[in-house]
Amino acid sequence: MCRFITRRVRLATALVGLMSSAALAQEPWTAPLQDAQGAIVMRVVMVQDEDANPQAVGQSVAKSLQTAMAGTALKAVVVSECFEDEENKAQLLRGICSVLGDDLVFGGATYGSFTQTGSAGFDSVALLGIGGAGVGVSAAIVTEMGTSKLALDQHEAEIRDRLHASGQQLIERLARSDRDRLLLLIPDAHSPKNRFLVEGVQRVTGEQFPITGGSVNKNAGQSYVYYRGQLYRDSAVALMLSGDFDVALSGRLAKDQESVLRTAAEGAAEALSRTAKKPLAVLAYNCAGRRGKLDDVTEELRAIQRVIGTAVPLFGCYNAGEIGPVDASERTSDALCGGSGWHVMFSVLGRD
Amino acid sequence: MQLAGYEKPLRQLAIALLAIVGGTGMVPAALGQDRTDKELLRGDRVSRATSGDTGIRLRAENLTLLPQSQPVAVVRVWNAGAQPYAGSIALRAPESWKLTPLEHAVQLAPGEETRLSFSVENAVEAPENLYPIVVRAAADGDEVTVHRDIQVATAPYLRPTIDGETDDWSDAVPVMFRTGQQQTVIRTAWHRRAFFVLVVVEEDALQPPSTDGPQDAVQLALATRDAAAAQSAAAADRFEFLLVPGSDGSARGTCYCLMTPGTPSSVAAEPRPVAELPVRSAELIVRRGNGKTYYECSLPWGDMQSYLKPAEGREFNLSVLIHDPDGTGLRDWGEAAGLWESQRNALAWSTWRGARWRDTPPMDSRTPWGLCSSRY
Questions:
Q1: Quick one: closest CA in B to A330, which residue?
Q2: Taking the CB of the first residue and of the last residue of chain A, which one, N or C, has fewer CB atoms within 10 A?
Q3: Contact by Cβ (8 Å): B125, B66
Q4: Cβ-proximal residues to B175 (8 Å cutoff; 6+ apart), any chain
Q5: Residue of A nearest to B116 (CA)
């Protein structure tokens, strides 16, 4: 009888432990700003898997990022990956986290990435490393949004209500400061649903706060966001960057090859022109549909590089919905940012 | 217009009656074009409010993305007349659709053709995959209107198993057309490694391969969106496959590759024995059930990868012929897609032993299709 009770108690304890561990993994996370005048270092690396070994690729890309950071401590890592199915994605994350630790690894599944070194699709991963005493990162996740299986044309009211609530809840979980500058959103809520999530966020941040981000890959079996090294579905991740730096945004829509190339250059130029500070990094959340219009996917990258040059770190990824300043042709409100599709959203972070 | 004898008035009366029965409610004022008769019979409803035919021809293409993905609706405009054309082209779509722009101004030299894009928002998916579209061309008091039900012709990201069971195809988009009383339904899907096709042919019986007679088969052509039309002097600009049922009662069929880009187009006219051309990495199951024949096939991208560059949002051309020699004869998706009569092209399809062709060539093997993300 005693042995029976003991076994039951041990099982219950283990279950509670597991649940606590899972709950802890979803807790908000902060790497605070230490010195407003301190360094801000942002670096981007990208690796393509040639050997069908996602875990090894994860370790390799993580080590590349450490090298690129040149001794500056990381505060957050944003992942954009395009490996196939949960098992490969989990192996990739394990590889990354084995080098960098779980807690500061965030991001999502995309359709591919582009950096200053080129464009990559299937079996590739790009990392954006954010570090230095002069930047703070605060992160949070909201899970079980309940909208991933709902279709907009049949369930619009329910999707709107759920994502409004999720967006608000997400931001309320973030540790905030008076030096908050840019919010990154990575949701499993593709266009056009993503606009409701942004509206929910704006109930807390206000409509003029800079927000950017991209909806994760919506292909069957591929839709994951990453939070503190773990995979989640039907969820949204938020990263708030704080410090003494400028943020300049732009957004452009296009649905044919000529417009895709033209707007990539225009959008990059507009964002760059909106800051007089030296660029620390350029983020580009781009639409997978735009890439599908190009005969040569590297043409868009070259168009961007002709504007921003090849020196500034560029973190670009292809998404199923983009967040940022909505193109004038589609804008329906005075909000600085919204959720949409067919866009490329640029963010230039700058500092003297 | 000078009337000659009594034949023309009788023909005009017949066409007017057809137009009214077709539901346009408008009686054509200028008639007598062979092309107009065939367009009416094939499903386009054409009407003119004019004193003459300016020669303008209109065609709304099928969408290549699902409505909720904010697709682009494309209208082809062709000046088939002898005079330059200057006018405006407008689109009328289902009520919820928001179109940008509302109309295009066009100027076309005789014989010139152009492709106009209308960005679509707020569209919702129709359960039967049919979307009524009206295209209107207006110029100097002349107005031409073409009514057509377009479909979404797209392959979502999906990985069905080639096993003869079709329940894993429910998220693929059905594209349907009729030949006589018989329906054909084409579903497509894609994955990073392969392109998938499910063709369901309503027919009384399956005519398997035999050494001496015509046989049933499905013929597919895949080409880039800007692929050139087949010409005898030029190399082919398409991949072409033939899906053939098993000859021994087995459900396992064989896929043959009839054409690859760069092959001389003249090869299309040679009735080669297909046994020399199998695609060993393809999988094909052909089975009968419920008065239908199901062709379920996976085509590894292989050499098509660098040619078509599969990606979400990629537009390309996919065309289909159904060989049903003991039933309806040749079923031509290009006809159902509304290609113009002038687009018939014998070199666009490869002949093969066992094929039975009509006297008129099939339509060109370049009808728009798309690759998209998963449906939900």
A1: B121
A2: N
A3: yes
A4: B62, B129, B151, B152, B153, B185, B186, B187, B188, B333
A5: A256
Closest to B312 (Cβ–Cβ): which among A151, A152, A289? A289
Position A140 scores a pLDDT of 98
Q: Are B152 and B173 within 8 A, CB to CB?
A: yes
In this complex, the residue of B121, B124, B373 whose CB is nearest that of residue A219 is: B373
Contact B255, B243 (CB under 8 A): yes
B51 pLDDT above the threshold of 60 = no
The HSE-up count of residue B85 (CA atoms within 13 Å, CB side) is: 30
Any bridge partners for residue A44, and if so which? A128
Q: What pLDDT shows up at residue B12? A: 44
Partners of residue B171 in chain A, C-beta under 8 Å: 220
Give the model confidence (pLDDT) of A105-158 as tens digits: 999 999 999 999 999 999 999 999 999 999 999 999 999 999 988 988 889 999
B124 interaction partners in chain A (CB closer than 8 Å): 153
Nearest to B312 among A111, A192, A330 (CB): A111
- A1 vs B369, residue with greater confidence: B369
Which chain A residue has its CA at the smallest distance from B307's CA?
Answer: A295
Judged by CB atoms closer than 8 Å, whether chains meet at B376 and A255 is answered as no
Least confident of A2-6, B62-66, B271-275: A2-6
Name the residue in chain B with its Cα closest to that of A112.
B311
- For B72, which of A192, A255, A330 is closest by C-beta distance? A255
Q: Which residue of chain A comes nearest to B156, CA vs CA?
A: A219
Distance from CA of A96 to the nearest CA of B (A): 24
Nearest beta carbon to residue B124 from set A153, A190, A292: A153
With bands split at pLDDT 50, 70 and 90, how would you rate the model's confidence at B25? very low
Bigger pLDDT: A6 or B350?
A: B350
Per-residue pLDDT at B49: 57
C-beta atoms surrounding B373 within 10 Å: 24
Which residues in chain B are classed under CATH 2.60.40.10? 7-150
Kindly write down the DSSP assignment for every residue of A177-221, as one continuous string: -TTEEEEEEEES--TTTHHHHHHHHHHHH-TTS-EEEEPPP-STT
Residue whose pair of structure tokens reads 């944003």 in the numeric block: A78
Just give the CATH number of B154-372.
2.60.40.1190
Share of chain B above pLDDT 70, in %: 86
Find chain A residues with C-beta within 8 A of B98's C-beta.
none
Domain with CATH 2.60.40.1190 in chain B: 154-372
Residues of chain A found within 8 Å of residue B309, distances taken between Cβ atoms:
295
Distance from CA of A294 to the nearest CA of B (A): 8
- What are all long-range contacts of B101-105, with beta carbons under 8 Å and residues at least 24 apart? none
The CATH fold of domain B7-150: Immunoglobulin-like (2.60.40)
ipTM confidence score: 0.89
Going by pLDDT thresholds of 50, 70 and 90, the confidence category of residue A18 is low
Verify whether the Cβ–Cβ distance A289 to B72 is below 8 Å. no
Look up tokens 């110029």; give the residue. B139
Q: How far apart are CA A331 and CA A327, in angstroms?
A: 6
Looking at every residue in chain B, the average pLDDT score rounds to 87
Whether residue A289 and residue B313 make contact (CB cut-off 8 A), yes or no, is yes
Write the pLDDT tens digit of every residue in A165-220. Answer: 999 999 999 999 999 999 999 999 999 999 999 999 999 999 999 999 999 999 99
